Amino acid sequence: MVPPCHVAAATCHGVLPRGPVGCDDERVQPYTGSDFYCDVALRDTAALDVVHEDERVLAYHHTRPFWDVHLVVVPKRHISSLTTATAADAEDLRALLVVVQQVARTVEERYGAACVETNLGAYQDSKHLHVHVHCGDVR
């Protein structure tokens, strides 16, 4: 399996391309770290198409959407995954779920459906809890 490419904000001069971008596109560099959200996304939120941001949670349109509509909701504080979260993460998890619900509700109202999912273990490319909210066809 080829690892996914993520847009590196520095290579885009603060502008992340929307829609599918090939790995050979000069605006994209393969991301080789283990936490895209702490390393890239949360460091330069101005480069993202943000739909929600508060002190605990960031939600934005995915920089490399896999579906027609594809958003990501992520806690700002590092939590490795849903299955490693502890009682100490309760406030961040509550805040995350509130935003996931709001984003999913908006997608469902606008497009008639929404899927909410998170990846775990080997399926989780970025080792930072994140929730995908999406609908539509695979791109």
TrEMBL record:
Limits of the HIT domain: 36-139
List of catalytic residues: 130 (tele-amp-histidine intermediate)
Name recorded for this polypeptide: HIT domain-containing protein
Pfam families xref list: HIT (PF01230)
InterPro entries membership: Histidine_triad_HIT, HIT-like, HIT-like_sf
Gene3D superfamilies in the cross-refs: HIT-like
GO MF term (any one): catalytic activity
Highest taxon in the source lineage: Bacteria
Motif Histidine triad motif positions after renumbering to this chain: 128-132
